Amino acid sequence: MSAGDDSTPAARLALLQAEYLRPRKGAAPERTATNQPPSAPIRLGVYDHLEACISEVVADARAAKAPEPTPRPRQLDGLYGWYIEQTAHLDAGRRQARDSVIYRQGLEHAVLMGDTSVIRPHPCPACATWGLFWSKEMQAIVCANRHCVDEDGLSTRWTFADIADAHIRRQVRAVRRAT
Ligand SMILES: [Zn+2]
């Protein structure tokens, strides 16, 4: 992951804050924050998403009880780097869980910004085919394979966490094979 790569979770997080938090001109404001003048509306979905992501990372980093804890960076693009530092002393399983949180948030940031193409490069955890897509109606990641269905005959669906966990597990296996 290079610093100039705008597809990293950190870059997407910063982009969401910088470009997507305020509605475009002419868009109906969904919410006016109480601590801001009424002329500065922010988009509820993005705002809540950012707050939830930051809270999750900060709570998990604090729970890790780093030997030398540092305060979280003010700039959002430093949040995940700080999270990794604060959890570097944890065992492999917990570091893997942390990596999954970061990866999951990265997928969520992208889909929230309308980039649903980030889903397709992941194989379906059930059938291993490459037809996963984000369904806005179902608010879920759905498998396009018509043979990949649940007991009720409905398409298999996944959460961002399912896809992130599977991705990080594959990554860990790949690293193990390479060493
Ligand atoms: Zn499937």
Explained architecture:
This protein is mostly helical and 179 residues long. It folds into two domains: 1-116, no CATH class; 119-179, no CATH class. It is built from five helices and three strands. The protein has helices at residues 9-20, 44-63, 79-86, 92-112, 160-178, and strands at 132-135, 140-143, 157-158. The chain has a three-stranded antiparallel sheet. α1 packs parallel to α4 (92-112). The mean pLDDT is 88. The structure holds zinc ion. Zinc ion is lined by residues 124, 126-127, 129, 143, 145, 148, 156.
Alpha-carbon Rg, integer:
18 Å
How large is the share of residues in beta strands? 5-15%
Bound molecules: zinc ion
What is the H-and-E element order?
HHHHEEEH
Strand order, biggest sheet?
A: 1-2-3
Shape: globular
Number of discrete helical segments: 5
User: Which structural class do you get from the secondary structure elements?
Assistant: mainly alpha
Termini separation (Å)?
Answer: 20 Å
Q: Which bin fits the share of residues in helices?
A: 40-55%
Give the total of beta strands.
3
**pLDDT < 50 stretches:** none
Number of structural domains: 2
